[in-house]
Amino acid sequence: xxxxxxxxxxxxxxxxxxxxxxxxxxxxxxxxxxxxxxxxxxxxxxxxxxxxxxxxxxxxxxxxxxxxxxxxxxxxxxxxxxxxxxxxxxxxxxxxxxxxxxxxxxxxxxxxxxxxxxxxxxxxxxxxxxxxxxxxxxxxxxxxxxxxxxxxxxxxxxxxxxxxxxxxxxxxxxxxxxxxxxxxxxxxxxxxxxxxxxxxxxxxxxxxxxxxxxxxxxxxxxxxxxxxxxxxxxxxxxxxxxxxxxxxxxxxxxxxxxxxxxxxxxxxxxxxxxxx
Length: 276
Prior knowledge:
It contains 12 helices and no strands. The chain is 79% helix and 0% strand. The chain is an all-alpha fold. It is globular. The N and C termini lie far apart (39 Å).
């Protein structure tokens, strides 16, 4: 796995600063989108749904490598297909958590097998599973921030309808809009976040960056809007703090970001108020 120590002794100071800056911008970009979206994941109890979508993205990686497409494109396509499949199959003789459990683990296994058929991907598999934020390029930053801004814009545009559909589907129907359509909007946003976050934290840790900052923010936020902002801030602090920890302790950057978020969550349990 790509660690900061591999560059400490081999890179010029200017290059060192550049790659750290790109890593920081990439982590913050993902956090700004994942934090507010993670609030809806927490409110709707969609954590397993996020896992299934994220794990399926490894199939998108295999598709991208096989067809020489950008990883973002393949991951987005497969994430959308998986999300649509879950929405279609839910309620057809299986409980949602059972269906999501089957799809999450099966899609990850299929993806790992598929990637093994692409010889050039064998050495890079860990980067797709746990992220390779220290190797974020300028082009990657464009994809990450473009996707993040798209998700933020989508959430702002549909905020009130998404919130109403989340709090009370019956109220949403009474207000004249379909709550299922709003769930599709969340599905699209989730697929975009999964696709742009692969480079930063990998498919195995994406759900953590969705759920943990939002769960920590929930302990302090009196309103949904404040919770969304706090989740983005906590995600950003986790990204920057994780990078700092990776530099100091020579640990993998992606997992270090999640550990930082988990530490913040532990403090929120002690200092924050319980909210149902």
